[in-house]
Amino acid sequence: MSELIRIRSLTKHFDMGRGQRVHAIDNISFDIAEREIVGLVGESGSGKSTLGKTLLGLHDKTAGEVYYRDELLPQHYHSSDYRRHARRMQMIFQDPYSSLNPRMTVGEIIAEGPRLHGMMTAAQAREAAGEWLRRVGLHPDHMSRYPHEFSGGQRQRIGIARALILEPEFVVCDEPISALDVSVQAQVVNLLSELQASLGLTLLFIAHDLSMVRYVSDRMAVMYLGSLVEIGPVDEVYFEPRHPYTQVLIASNPEPDPESERQRVSTSIRGEISSPVNVPEGCRFAARCPRAMEECRRVTPVLKPVDESGRLVACHLY
Ligand code: SF4
Fold first, then answer.
1. Which of 225, 270, 299, 317 to mutate to test the pocket of ligand 1 (most atoms within 8 A of CB)?
2. Which of 10, 49, 57, 282 supports an S-S bond with 28, CB 3.0-4.6 Å?
3. Helix 122-135 crosses helix 152-164 at what angle (to 10 degrees)?
4. Does residue 121 fall inside a structural domain?
5. Residue 280 is part of which domain span?
6. Is the minimum distance from the CB of 244 to ligand 1 under 6 angstroms?
7. Residue 150 lies in a domain
8. What is the mean pLDDT of each successive set of 10 residues along the chain, which is 318 residues long?
9. Which atom of ligand 1 lies at the shortest distance from residue 301's CA?
């Protein structure tokens, strides 16, 4: 597989005024291969969504580079060069309730992108929107209805149609199921999986649910307080996590099987995730890590290979 996306030292800080800066993501580097699904996990506040949005240019980068098929993406999303790439990189948002314009019909919402990008005439875009409604499991007759007439799962299907009608190659799925009822989560994940396979999409799948990430992903990437701490083949990371944070994150993940859940030794991560405004020196997990050493508070660990599987871990234990 060749690399579709290469991310190098990607950093995004938000200036809060009065000299305070939120270190949302710091110095993140990894590649995403063509047709690969990388699952991105971590607690709330770890910077997962900011990474996805910065990758797509929805936030300007503070530092670092993103390459798309070896072409360096411009620094600013609003440059005409960036717009040239924008169609090929799409996002499916977390909240299907707020991401659809309530004043537009579903047909208008789905057909808007191809018209704005000059891909289709209005008539062609309308026909393609009807076809995409069918592909995501809705009915072309739904074109003239408004978002509020649909359930959460149906609205997320509309969001998927709106993104994929643009024929992107790379899609960031930003917690696409976390706002949905448990009963419809698997249906939406299965739809995304089917479309990824049939269209040959490359996905960054951001989620809280580690079992779901394991189910859909080729590799799993783990973030903590704006840093990437572990990345590798999904089963290796899930069943044999190496970074102490990944170990507690996976041990505290509820098992879907109630019997396994009963037998599981309860493990929780002590303390709260630190503030991204006052990022500690050295390893960012040191204050909560059961294996922290003196060196951990002084020296920032870098990602390095720890086995033959291609797994990388940022921890002084390796
Ligand atoms: Fe724990 Fe040190 Fe590894 Fe950080 S570098 S995870 S503090 S052992």
1. 317
2. 10
3. 130
4. no
5. 3-88+168-313
6. yes
7. no
8. 93 88 94 98 93 92 93 75 78 84 95 91 95 95 94 95 96 92 91 96 94 94 97 97 95 65 52 76 93 96 94 97
9. 5
Check if 286 has its Cβ closer than 6 Å to any atom of ligand 1: yes
Contact assessment for residue 215 and residue 208, using Cβ atoms and an 8 Å cutoff: no
Token pair in block for residue 117: 């990008």
Distance (Å, rounded) from C-alpha 311 to C-alpha 313? 7
3-class SS string, 169-192: CEEEEECCCCCCCHHHHHHHHHHH
The model's pTM is 0.91
The domain tally of the chain equals 1
CATH code, 194: 3.40.50.300
Give CA–CA dist 288/316, Å, rounded. 15
Ligand 1 centroid to residue 303 C-alpha, Å: 12
271 within a domain of the structure (yes/no): yes
- Cα separations (Å) of 218 from 107, 173, 185, 212? 34, 15, 19, 12
Tell me, rounded to whole angstroms, the distance of Cα 297 from its chain centroid: 29
Answer yes or no: are the C-beta atoms of 227 and 26 closer than 8 Å. yes
Q: Report if residue 81 sits inside a domain.
A: yes
Task: Kindly tell me the sign of the dihedral angle through the C-alpha atoms of 129, 134, 137, 143.
Answer: positive
